[in-house]
Design the sequence.
């Protein structure tokens, strides 16, 4: 099964200069937990999650309207996949880098979709038979991925005073 068969193609995105307040509203209005940051040519340059917004504001001691997407995402590497990649390849990339969402890029490296852990889970096992005919993702592979990505990882503690 390919990423194109499970990915979301209508993706809300914004520029790296967008405020975290506006990114949070994009998430609210589009019922999603991650927003890709794209440049003028629609190339993904970062991604902001709802957790990034919370932690960014807390650790930098600033209100959301004073922080930009690039303030939070610029220190992290961005991982993407292609629509013709296999689900197994996408799962391996997510597992290796301990991420739950991947921007999907076309042959011009432009954003063309997103694939998330939830998208993949929805096509796993019995559920997939109803959605994709005989195409399905191995329940065992998905559970191994979920187990790894959901496990507690070494702490990235920052000094914070409350």
Sequence:
């Amino acid at each position: 099964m390919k990423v194109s068969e499970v990915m979301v193609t209508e993706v809300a995105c914004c520029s790296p200069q967008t405020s975290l307040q506006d990114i949070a509203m994009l998430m609210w209005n589009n019922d999603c937990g991650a927003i890709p940051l794209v440049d003028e040519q629609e190339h993904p340059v970062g991604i902001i999650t709802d957790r990034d917004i919370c932690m960014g504001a807390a650790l930098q001691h600033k209100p959301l309207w004073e922080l930009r997407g690039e303030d939070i995402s610029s220190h992290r590497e961005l991982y993407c996949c292609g629509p013709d990649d296999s689900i197994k390849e996408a799962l391996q990339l997510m597992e290796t880098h301990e991420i739950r969402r991947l921007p999907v890029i076309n042959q011009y490296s432009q954003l063309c979709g997103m694939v998330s852990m939830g998208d993949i889970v929805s096509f796993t096992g019995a559920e997939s038979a109803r959605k994709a005919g005989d195409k399905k993702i191995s329940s065992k592979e998905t559970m191994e991925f979920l187990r790894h990505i959901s496990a507690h990882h070494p702490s990235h503690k920052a000094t914070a005073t409350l």
Observations:
- Strands lie at 34-38, 44-49, 101-105, 111-116.
